[in-house]
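Purpose: get a first structural picture of the assembly so the mutagenesis plan has something to point at.
Setup: two entries, given in the order below. No constraints added.
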Amino acid sequence: MTAGKLTSNVKYSIMNNVKDVTKMAKENLFYDTRNRVVYTFEEYKTLTQDVRKNLLLVPDDAVVKNKRYLTDAEIQKENEQFRQDVDETLRIVQKHSDEARRREQENEEAKRNAVKDTEDLYELADVIALNVEQTIDDNYYSGTKADELRSQVISEIKKNYNGIDLFKYLSTKDIKRAIERSKNGEPVKKAYRKEKIKLAFITFIVTVSVLVSAYGAEIAVDMIKEQKKINESTSSISKLSYDRYDVDYINNALNNSNNTIGIASQNAHRNKGSQHFYYNNDDIARDLLKLPSYAVDMGIYQVYNDMGVNRSNPGHPNIDEVIYYLNIFSNDNAALKDKFDNCFTFNDYLIKNGYYFIHQETHEKVADIPKWLKYQEASLVNYNNLLKEQAAEHIDVLSNGGRK
Amino acid sequence: MIDVDTIIIDNIKYAVIAEINNYVYLANIENPKDFMIRKETEKDGEKYLAPIESDDEFKKALELFTK
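Result (structure tokens, whole complex):
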């Protein structure tokens, strides 16, 4: 509710009041000249002759209130009082309206903060997940060890959904600082103190992610090899790029960066010879499965972004079909089989991977596309930042004669 | 809220994340970016958390942590 609306309501009410007064004055009324008391014709019939002889007809332009024909002075006084009442009413309305608006603004801010907190949290979760996946890939972890690491981190992120401390992406500088901190300083007596700490576990999770990323970075034989890995990784992602002769390749700003995941491979270019070039959705699915596991969602995000105005837009990939083929082709892919299991449409994929809300009336899971888009957008940004940082690190090393 | 061991180093409170083979893994409660590894040593019957000696030792400790 806003001040403007309330004010209008009050004005409307005032106009109605004026109308009522005028209406009464225009009726066929009588008034006693001695006390200006007003009678209707029905009442007139019940009056005695003594009273009747003092009655006059109320003029059409007279103002009658509370069965009294008002004098000019009374009218003036009434008007003043009325204006005061109006002013007072408007003042009160304004006051309450301002208060309501203030509260609304506060709520809006609280809502915005909550959204921001949530976005930061998702961003954090994505960064940690990327770090973990990167480490798994870098160290060729597989089987139980990789799954344990992955599931522990992800489940604990979910558990610590509320009250999480927010922080930004941890850079290699942070890791180097940690190394320096570990090597320097005086011995401290081992005197622990037990404390209850709300954020301790998330601190643990963060530390784990930092340590594993440090482990991945530090354990790599040297930065040259590290750079080779980055090149291989980038190259594998770059396989999903537009056909350079495709008009979308020219128009799509995303193709300008090697660090960005395109959507169609050289093998999945559109069929030529028709008005539209059609993508082969099964080829797109095959190419998506060639990506590192942590980048598959981002690849799907790119497919989604290119699908046009709807899911069956001619000349664009069909996201439902892509998911359908991902389900089929991922059967032989241990890391991704579960991700697409029983997913036949894009909605299935979203719900299966936790991007849904519960419908208030049907209590069914409903795919939450905006939530998913927000996640993937953040992931893509983080991923690009990660690559940029690694590249910058490599440049530092090269400029230092190959030494870290 | 969970119980954790804490220790003050350089006037900063760190949570003890883990202790493996005399290595102690610490994280600043207020700033998760700030973390370190210390080594438990003993002198005159008292236990101390001392700095580690080298990058290699840091790597070794990380390997232990991630195994």
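The longest strand of chain A covers residues 193-197.
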